[in-house]
């Protein structure tokens, strides 16, 4: 049952343009890390950060869906919930970017 729910969630998430862009960016990051031949620790950190980003994008989408369902009118509370979910996604995008910059710095100094 859980696998079915997860598949349904992934199918729903694929409808989000932001998620599709994050998947493309993730593929680009994977290619960049492969070209740079980074350490196993950086590869692991990159994989974990990317999976956290996917998870947070799913949570953010769930928040948006719930807010739109229970509060279709514009409200400060609904706006705050959506803004906070968006901030969480932004923080993980930033963490992925910081790791890439770290890997680039290592690559350029060795």
UniProtKB/TrEMBL annotation:
InterPro entries: DAGK, DAGK_prok. Its EC number is 2.7.1.107. GO terms for biological process: phosphatidic acid biosynthetic process. It is a multi-pass membrane protein. A divalent metal cation binds at residues 16, 64. It is found in: Cell inner membrane. The active site is at residue 57. Keywords: ATP-binding, Cell inner membrane, Cell membrane, Kinase, Lipid metabolism, Magnesium, Membrane, Metal-binding, Nucleotide-binding, Phospholipid metabolism, Transferase, Transmembrane, Transmembrane helix. Its main location: membrane. It holds the Pfam family DAGK_prokar. Its cofactor is Mg(2+). One of its GO terms (cellular component) is plasma membrane. ATP binds at residues 5, 16, 64, 82-83. The keyword Nucleus does not apply. Signal peptide: none annotated. One of its GO terms (molecular function) is ATP binding. The chain crosses the membrane at residues 42-63, 84-106. It is an enzyme of class 2 (transferase). Substrate binds at residues 18-22, 43, 57, 86. Gene3D superfamilies: Diacylglycerol kinase (DAGK) domain. It comes from the Bacteria. It catalyses: a 1,2-diacyl-sn-glycerol + ATP = a 1,2-diacyl-sn-glycero-3-phosphate + ADP + H(+). Mn(2+), Zn(2+), Cd(2+) and Co(2+) support activity to lesser extents. Catalyzes the ATP-dependent phosphorylation of sn-l,2-diacylglycerol (DAG) to phosphatidic acid. Involved in the recycling of diacylglycerol produced as a by-product during membrane-derived oligosaccharide (MDO) biosynthesis. Belongs to the bacterial diacylglycerol kinase family. This is Diacylglycerol kinase. The lineage of its organism: Bacteria, Pseudomonadati, Pseudomonadota, Alphaproteobacteria, Hyphomicrobiales.
